[in-house]
Amino acid sequence: MGKVIVVTGTPGTGKTLLARKLAEKLNGIHIDLSELVLKEGLYTEYDVEVASFIIDEEAVIGRIKELASRYEIVVIDSHYGEIVPPDLVWKVIVLRTDPEELEKRLQKRGWWWEKIRENVEAEILSVCSQQALNVFGRDKVYEIDTTNKNPQQVLEEALEILQGKGEPGLKYDWLATKPIKKLSKYLA
Ligand SMILES: Nc1ncnc2c1ncn2[C@@H]1O[C@H](COP(=O)(O)OP(=O)(O)OP(=O)(O)O)[C@@H](O)[C@H]1O
Ligand SMILES: [Mg+2]
User: Fold this and answer.
1) What is the pTM of this model?
2) 14 lines ligand 1 (CB under 6 A)
3) Whose CA is nearest to atom 15 of ligand 1?
4) Is residue 12 classed as helix, strand or coil in its secondary structure?
């Protein structure tokens, strides 16, 4: 079986940009999980209320296993990276972004305020990191702060992590490090 690297994080933290570069650098394959689900119809139904597809977990897991048996390096790019079977996973990289910077990136997408707010709130509460830690365990999960780094610097930090440098576990906690007056507008 090949090595699976999971790149996860709140929308807008730069997963796709990093995962693409990482796969290229390591001669692996980049899989954007949402894209794969849509392209291959790996969903069971469309939920009109939340305007999204309900993914067929079994089918997605089967597909990831198949890719891992065919490629030496598989870079999975997803904000629900927890779906990847832990025994297949080599390392998990969680991208983090300062809430104010993340708001700017999401505004550029033309998202409405409530959608931006919900996502920035999830970033403030470290939701993706907590989920990754719960599912994959502390030793496999590494965070990178992308806030004042360009994509090349983020790539270099990721490559170092894969080489065994850096400390695993939770490193960034916006609630503890930013003044609450800068965060309260995002919190429900
Ligand atoms: N290190 C970085 N520095 C500055 N801007 C970045 C960085 N990484 C990504 N961006 C910018 O942030 C935006 C979001 O990047 P990207 O699409 O890779 O995020 P994503 O995590 O894949 O989002 P989604 O979950 O919605 O797919 C893009 O406009 C990108 O140019
Ligand atoms: Mg993406």
Assistant:
1) 0.96
2) yes
3) 14
4) coil
Q: What is the mean pLDDT of the chain?
A: 96
CA–CA distances in Å: residue 129 to residues 26, 74, 143, 182: 24, 20, 8, 21
Q: What is the pLDDT of residues 32-64, one digit of tens each?
A: 999 999 999 999 998 888 888 899 999 999 999
Ligand 1 atom at minimum distance from 109 CA: 29
Give Cα 49 to chain centroid, integer Å: 24
The reported pLDDT for the residue numbered 49 is 87
Classify domain 3-98+127-172 at the CATH topology level.
Answer: Rossmann fold (3.40.50)
E strands, 10-88, in order: 29-32, 43-47, 52-55, 73-77
Q: How far apart are CA 176 and CA 173, in angstroms?
A: 5
Per-residue pLDDT tens over the stretch 135-164: 999 999 999 999 999 999 999 999 999 999
For ligand 1, say whether the CB of 149 is within 6 Å of any of its atoms: yes
- All structural domains of the chain with their residue ranges: 3-98+127-172
Ligand 1 contacts CB of residue 11 (under 6 A):
yes
CB-based neighbours (< 5 A) of ligand 2, an ion: 15-16
DSSP for 112-151, written as a single string = -HHHHHHHHHHHHTTHHHHHHHHHH-GGGEEEEE-TT--H
* Alpha carbons 66 and 17: distance in angstroms, whole number: 24
